[in-house]
Amino acid sequence: MRSRWGRNLLLASAAAMTVVPWLADWNRRHTFGPGYGPHARWHGTSEVVGVSCSGLVMLWLIIRGIRHDRRMATAVAALLPLLRYGPFNLTLVVPGTSAYEEGGPPIRLLGLPASLLTQDALIALALAGYGLERRADIQATRHGSPTGGPPSRELLDPSTAVRWRPLPRRW
To answer: How many whole angstroms from its chain centre is CA 98?
Structure first.
């Protein structure tokens, strides 16, 4: 069973990861700015392309996923924004770093740099979507089957249970 809200929040986070870096960083104020040298442009380009690729993988995991393990696909998709954007929060404690553009006025929202707040919002969307997905899975499992339907005969009949036995040691 899928949570429509959970899936939509995950899709919104994935779509934003795919598109927003091109809008925010691929311009004359950032990657192609006069203060950016060739190596800074190289980093800027790799960041924009890398985040967009992560967003595309996230979209694929949510839409197509791993058919036999949708829960794992959803968990990995939800972790991608955290893994990609989470480290930017650590830069606040590194001396000499700044979340603001050179020479530009600091843009703050809710007391945080606007760029970090945007990234943290994408992380929050993904984690909230994952939480709703897990909640729907747990409710479906409690009500019978993993698909949310009535319990199947196999689940109710103990004679059909898989008997696990240890593997022989051959090493």
So the answer is: 25
User: Which range marks the domain in which residue 66 is found?
Assistant: 4-160
Residue 95 has pLDDT above 70, yes or no: yes
Question: Per-residue DSSP letters for 8-55?
Answer: HHHHHHHHHHHHHHHHHHSSTTTTT-TT--HHHHHHHHHHHHHHHHHH
Residue at 33 is within a domain:
yes
Q: Are 51 and 84 in contact (CB under 8 A)?
A: yes
What is the model's pTM? 0.74
DSSP-based three-state secondary structure for 113: strand
Q: Is the confidence at residue 151, as pLDDT, over 60? A: no
* 61: in domain: yes
Secondary-structure percent of the chain, ordered helix, strand, coil, rounded to 5: 65, 0, 35
Q: Considering only CA atoms, which of 23, 79, 76 is closest in space to residue 52?
A: 23
The mean pLDDT of 125-135, rounded to a whole number, is: 94
Number of domains making up the chain: 1
